[in-house]
Design goal:
InterPro entries: HerA-like, HerA_central, P-loop_NTPase
Oligomer: single chain
Mean pLDDT: 93
Distance between the termini: 67 Å
GO molecular function, one term: 3'-5' DNA helicase activity
Number of helices: 19
Strand order of the largest sheet: 8-21-20-19-10-18-17-13-16-14-15
Structural class: alpha/beta
Helix content: 25-40%
Number of strands: 21
Organism: Pyrolobus fumarii (strain DSM 11204 / 1A)
Catalytic activity: ATP + H2O = ADP + phosphate + H(+); Couples ATP hydrolysis with the unwinding of duplex DNA by translocating in the 3'-5' direction
CATH topology of the largest domain: Rossmann fold
Bound molecules: adenosine-5'-triphosphate, magnesium ion
Shape: elongated
Number of domains: 3
Family: Belongs to the HerA family.
Strand content: 15-25%
């Protein structure tokens, strides 16, 4: 145990009169003036007890008794610069801080204060000892320590891994540090302390929209290990030139997990973008596929090698005057089938009767915790449109749902974290973000609403949570909020069930890599500002190189 707070921390200020159990005004000491920042946490040593209260600095104010508006020296200040200099030399400005009191240190959840701090109570730096502060032992199994509490190097936020099952949302505008921070979190989750010096990794699948997580693959391939992860495998689409590089596989999916009705929906949605899907067309196609699957074909066979059987049956069922399928409906279905077959199967090679992303793969990575990166970057999925990516995500979500339902029935407890970058593209809020293909959304919603014992945890990353399906969003219970645009502040504050006002106000001005962390995983029990920790693995994808690229473009041109 480290030394007690009184001796390790120097006094930052003293409480002035008028404090309540929720708020106090303090005057800072000279030392305090140098190091106290707005947003920072401080301690208040409660008079007459050994207890420390924890408070957040909402506002700093600098005051001076001589420079008050309308005071006796107003005219002097107007007229004479010399007098101004004299006034400055005798005025002694001081700083006051508005402190929002969070609770009593030393117990999880930081309970409320029994009585307000007294005038003269000392404001101090927090001791860097998590058990003194939060009542949580540094070595507690199942706790990962995230970043640094804003203002304190070496004082991380304890996160309870057990509560990841209630899903996590990571929000913030572009460049605010979401992907870097999620990478950092994944590093922590690949080395969860189990006690006795042992660590374990949580199995994970990353839907990597921009290749932000490929550095982890690279490090695994070159060093052969990454935390306690067994493997890191990158999935690329079959036309990617990277498909035969080490620890890389082609992603091929089948539709056999889906019912004929779902397959029909997927195909018709693929054509229309999912916006207005025609019920008559879906049920007619459902009928065709159902008939043929009853005859022994798999859905995937029917949409790849055996497509002609589907065309023929469709033709048969729509021929003649009393045909069960109207010829116009048949024509629309035919055109949707054509497009699906041509693009998903022929052009991108995603659909296959020999899928590579299978139930056995999920069995394997949940038994031998591994990370799968579905690489949707331009290298990993060249020319693949969003709709095909949505189909892949729908498939993965459906497969996971199927597998985890089975595990549950079998009493086989397993866990997996599904990380989705650009979550609004897979679980769109169609009211204000009409990008189509809601089938992925439906399965993600199904997973999200399963409850915490199901075993699949979602980690959704989005620039615009307002564009994420509200059902899915409402199921997230831990939030890491980076800098957000002014228009989004209220939406986000509401989505996370309210934030203290002073924190809410800071959201639009957070520096890159600083975030508010709130919700179930945060064992402090109150939202706090945190500086994201340094990743062990670098983050090359997030960088832009405008100037360097221009330099290369111009090298050898100017003057020679
Ligand atoms: N805490 C940090 N420490 C060091 N560098 C950081 C930190 N956070 C972000 N960066 C760097 O800043 C850049 C932008 O961060 P990042 O890519 O994580 O933003 P983002 O919120 O994911 O943006 P987008 O929404 O556009 O994907 C990256 O180069 C990243 O490596
Ligand atoms: Mg990003």
């Amino acid at each position: 145990m480290r030394e007690k707070s009184e001796t390790t921390s120097r006094v930052l200020g003293v409480v002035l009169s008028g404090a309540t159990t929720k708020q106090a005004i303090a005057q800072l000491t000279e030392h305090g003036e140098k190091i106290v920042n707005e947003g920072m946490l401080v301690g208040i040593q409660l008079w007459g007890s050994e207890r420390l209260a924890i408070a957040r600095v909402e506002k700093l104010r600098i005051e001076s008794d001589i420079f008050k508006p309308g005071d006796a020296w107003s005219e002097l200040r107007r007229e004479s610069l010399d007098a101004l200099t004299m006034l400055e030399s005798v005025s002694s400005p001081y700083v006051t801080a508005v402190l929002n009191i969070i609770g009593l240190a030393g117990e999880p959840g930081l309970p409320p204060l029994p009585r307000p701090p007294k005038p003269g109570d000392k404001v101090v730096e927090l001791p860097r000892d998590p058990s003194l502060l939060f009542g949580i032992d540094e070595n507690r199994p199942g706790v990962i320590w995230y970043g640094d509490i804003y203002g304190y190097q070496g004082l991380p936020v304890p996160l309870d891994v057990e509560n990841i099952t209630m899903h996590v949302g990571v929000f913030g505008e572009t460049g605010s540090g979401k992907s870097y921070g999620v990478g950092y979190l994944l590093e922590l989750l690949s080395q969860i302390p189990l006690g006795n010096g042992k660590t374990a990794a949580l199995p994970m699948i990353v839907i990597d929209a921009n290749g932000d997580y490929l550095d982890y693959h690279h490090v695994f391939v070159t060093r052969g290990s990454l935390g306690a992860l067994h493997k890191v495998i990158r999935f690329v689409t079959p036309r990617s030139r990277l498909r035969s590089t080490p620890f890389t596989r082609e992603i091929k999916i089948s539709l056999d997990f889906f019912t004929p009705r779902e397959a029909a929906e997927i195909i018709m949605m693929y054509k229309t973008g999912g916006l207005d899907i025609n019920e008559m067309q879906v049920s007619a196609l459902d009928r065709v596929i159902s008939e043929l699957t009853e005859e022994g074909y798999t859905i995937t066979e029917l949409l790849t090698n055996e497509i002609n059987l589907v065309y023929e049956r469709l033709e048969e069922l729509s021929r003649g005057r009393d045909a069960p399928i109207h010829h116009q409906t048949a024509r629309a279905i035919r055109s949707a089938l054509d497009k699906f077959y041509r693009e998903v199967y022929k052009q991108h090679g995603i659909l296959s009767t020999e899928p590579t992303f299978t139930g056995e793969l999920i069995d394997d990575i949940t038994r031998n915790p591994s990370m799968l990166i579905v690489d949707f970057s331009a290298d990993g999925a060249p020319g693949v449109p969003l709709q095909v990516k949505q189909l892949i995500v729908a498939y993965i979500a459906r497969l996971l749902y199927e597998k985890f339902t089975r595990y549950k029935v079998d009493g086989d407890e397993r866990y997996l974290l599904l990380i989705i970058e650009e979550a609004q593209n897979y679980a769109p809020n169609l009211r204000n973000y009409p990008i189509g293909m809601s089938i992925a959304r439906d399965y993600l919603a199904l997973i999200a609403t399963q409850g915490r014992k199901f075993g699949i945890s979602l980690l959704l990353v989005s620039q615009r949570p307002a564009f994420v399906d509200p059902v899915v969003l409402s199921m997230t219970n831990t939030w890491i909020i980076h800098r957000v645009a002014p228009d989004d502040v209220h939406y986000i504050a509401r989505a996370v069930g309210g934030l203290p006002e002073d924190l809410e106000k800071r959201l639009t001005s957070l520096p890159r890599g600083v975030a508010v962390i709130a919700g179930q995983m945060n064992m402090i029990g109150h939202p706090v500002l945190v500086r994201v920790g340094k990743r062990k693995v670098s983050h090359r994808m997030g960088m832009t190189r405008v100037v360097e690229t221009l330099r290369r473009l111009y090298s050898g041109r100017n003057g020679d």
